[in-house]
Amino acid sequence: MNKTNYIKIAKKTSAIQISELRKLNKIFNKSFVKAVDLISSCRGKIIAAGVGKSGLIARKVSATLSSVGFPSFYLSPSEANHGDLGQIDRRDILLIFSYSGNTIELSNVLKYANRFNIKVIGIASKKDSMLLKASDIQILLPKVKESDPTGMVPTTSTTITLLFGDCLCSALMYKFSFSKEKFKLFHPGGSIGQNLLLVKDVMLIGPKMPLINYKSNILKAIQIINKKNLGLGIIIRNKCAVGIVTDGDIR
């Protein structure tokens, strides 16, 4: 198979997903608004759960929620059956992803939530599925055509689930007037953190400044430079900066 065919296949896959993703706009209704309101009023943590590909989507949505100020973590339903259910508190909210809605590993998590009156937001594509029947808020995803050659591998279905999660996070950000300033607090590292770095974050003012009176001797200058630990001093005369002296200059 030549390169042209590979490109054709890639474009076809992309076209299928782009077309199918448009279906998501039809599902934003009162249930979506209720989900936003429930999460925004949560006094505990948002616990995202899912199995397989849905589990990977749940991890990403959980990570995004935490990065914009909504404490969240991912819970593996399989591990939950072996003791991790203890991580769930009555104040928490379960955000469970399962495209089929009938993943058997979810049953014990749902029973636990029901027993302790823990709110569940279920995201699935089958209205009569186990997950949606057990959920306090039901998000019914549209059924979509998978974009792989067999039409069976989770491709479009995972993409549309991820898109829903991003839409949910965006709605919550708007509700709380989330800004670049707030995002910087939760994301100080990496290229994003560097792009959001402001002058005031690194600027020194007041007593932190290594100010040296122009009449001071070298010994006094060294003491000030050592104390402020910046490797330099600012020479001041009549409250105005008239020069800079570095540790290297003096030595």
Give the gist of this structure.
This protein is α/β, with parallel strands linked by helices and 251 residues long. Helices cover 45% and strands 16% of the residues. It has helices at 3-21, 30-40, 53-67, 77-80, 107-115, 130-133, 156-175, 180-186, 190-195, 199-202, 218-228, 247-250; strands at 46-50, 72-75, 93-97, 119-124, 137-140, 211-213, 232-237, 240-246.
Distance between the termini: 70 Å
Order of helices and strands: HHEHEHEHEHEHHHHEHEEH
Which range does the strand content fall in? Answer: 15-25%
The largest sheet is: 5 strands, parallel
Mean pLDDT: 86
Total strands = 8
The radius of gyration is: 27 Å
* Helix fraction by DSSP (H/I, runs of at least 4): 40-55%
Enumerate the strands of the largest sheet in spatial order, edge to edge or round the barrel: 2-1-3-4-5
Backbone structural class:
alpha/beta
Shape: elongated
Model description:
- It is a single chain.
- The protein has 251 residues and is an alpha/beta fold.
- It is 45% helix and 16% strand.
- The chain has helices spanning 3-21, 30-40, 53-67, 77-80, 107-115, 130-133, 156-175, 180-186, 190-195, 199-202, 218-228, 247-250; strands spanning 46-50, 72-75, 93-97, 119-124, 137-140, 211-213, 232-237, 240-246.
- Strands 2-1-3-4-5 form a five-stranded parallel β-sheet, with helices on both faces. A three-stranded mixed β-sheet has the order 6-7-8.
- Helix 2 (30-40) packs across helix 7 (156-175) and helix 3 packs parallel to helix 7.
- The chain is elongated and about 85 Å long.
- It starts with a helix and ends with a helix.
- The relative contact order is 0.12.
